[in-house]
Every structure is written in structure tokens, then in C-alpha cells.
Specification:
By secondary structure, the chain is mainly alpha-helical. Helices cover 71% and strands 2% of the residues.
Length: 205
């Protein structure tokens, strides 16, 4: 097992968990930036500087958009679970993914498949916990990262074009969250939150 890939995977999954469990806008933004920016490091051989730069720019843009849209607000957290149980679920999924690499035809590192399964688990648990647009958008960011990591696990390093597309989709999802935040806050202030919505859903002043 490659220790560098394990460490990089831990950083990526930690970013995903922070994105869906944090209650501070700054932590959500930083988690999303780490999540989207560090995924290329899971490839072997390591991608070139242009690919890393493309992903870094896209990740920073996504983080900035989330920060602008959510700052000054308390995020309810996309997941009803806290980060400790989420981390345990992700760790179990990582182990299952590494073991499953022996059963699937793949040319990428087994650590990448483990990280992908861990991210899918984080996203699914987050979606099950909350249902409004902001939380679905944050969960979508984790799914975007998970999908790109699956590509790395199956076929090796991504091309510059694929990296650009993933960065653009991630930034678009972050922009959607940023645009939805004020709208949802206004709906909550007007008492228009749908009946049955989870307590603290959306953002609060």
C-alpha cells in the first residue's frame, strides 16, 4: 500500500466530510477546496503541473463561491451525523474499496478506489440526512469528486481536458449553492420552509 496515496486519500475524504458536516461557512469552503483540489494526487503516475494547476484554480474558485454565498450564516450541516461517525463510515468504505480492487479490472491504484467508495458513502449519508437545495448541492460536490476519483481508479491519471471539465462542474455546483443560500434564508424568514423539513435546515442568520 502506498503511504503517500493513503495520506492524500485521508486529506480528500476529510475535506469531503468537512464540506457536509461543518457548521461554519469558512470550514465548508475550505473543505470543498481541499476535496476538489487534492483528488488528482491519488493517481499513479502523478499528474503534471498543468493538470494540478487547473484543478487547484477550480478548487479555489469553488471554495471562494461557497464562502461568498454562505459567509455570515450558520450552516445546518448537510449531514445529520457529526464528523466522528461519518469518518468511521468512510474508513470502513475505504477498506472495502481497497479490497474490491482485486475483483474489478482496473489500472489505477487500489487506494483511489477506496477513496472513491468512501466519498460515495459520505455523499449518500449526507443526502439521506438533509433534503434542501443547499445541502444537496454540498453533497453533489462530494459526488463530483468521487466520480473523478473512480475515473482515476479505473483508468489512471485524468487528462487536462477531463480535469478542466471536473473543475468547471465543481465550480458550477458551488455557484448554485451560493445562489440558493440567500433565497432559502429569505424563505425561512418568511416562514415558507416546507412542512416536515428537518430542524435547522438551510442557513440561519
Amino acid at each position: 500500500m502506498n503511504l503517500f496515496l493513503v495520506a492524500a486519500g485521508a486529506v480528500v475524504v476529510a475535506g469531503g466530510i468537512a464540506c457536509v458536516t461543518a457548521r461554519r461557512a469558512a470550514v465548508v469552503a475550505i473543505g470543498a477546496a481541499i476535496l476538489l483540489g487534492a483528488t488528482p494526487l491519488l493517481a499513479l503516475p502523478q499528474p503534471g503541473l498543468p493538470v494540478l494547476a487547473e484543478r487547484a484554480v477550480g478548487a479555489l474558485l469553488a471554495g471562494e463561491l461557497l464562502w461568498v454565498g454562505l459567509r455570515g450564516r450558520t450552516v445546518a450541516g448537510a449531514s445529520a451525523l457529526g464528523w466522528p461517525p461519518m469518518a468511521l463510515l468512510a474508513a470502513a468504505a475505504f477498506g472495502a474499496g481497497v479490497g474490491a480492487q482485486q475483483l474489478v479490472p482496473a489500472t489505477g491504484p487500489p487506494e483511489a478506489l477506496g477513496v472513491a467508495l468512501a466519498l460515495f458513502t459520505v455523499a449518500i449519508v449526507a443526502v439521506a440526512g438533509r433534503s434542501d437545495g443547499i445541502h444537496l448541492g454540498l453533497s453533489a460536490l462530494v459526488l463530483i469528486a468521487a466520480t473523478s476519483v473512480v475515473r482515476v481508479a479505473m483508468s489512471g491519471p485524468s487528462s487536462a481536458l477531463e480535469t478542466l471539465l471536473v473543475s468547471a462542474v465543481g465550480a458550477a455546483a458551488a455557484a448554485a449553492v451560493a445562489l440558493l443560500a440567500p433565497r432559502l434564508e429569505a424563505d425561512e424568514a418568511a416562514g415558507d420552509v416546507p412542512t416536515g423539513a428537518p430542524p435547522g435546515s438551510g442557513v440561519r442568520p
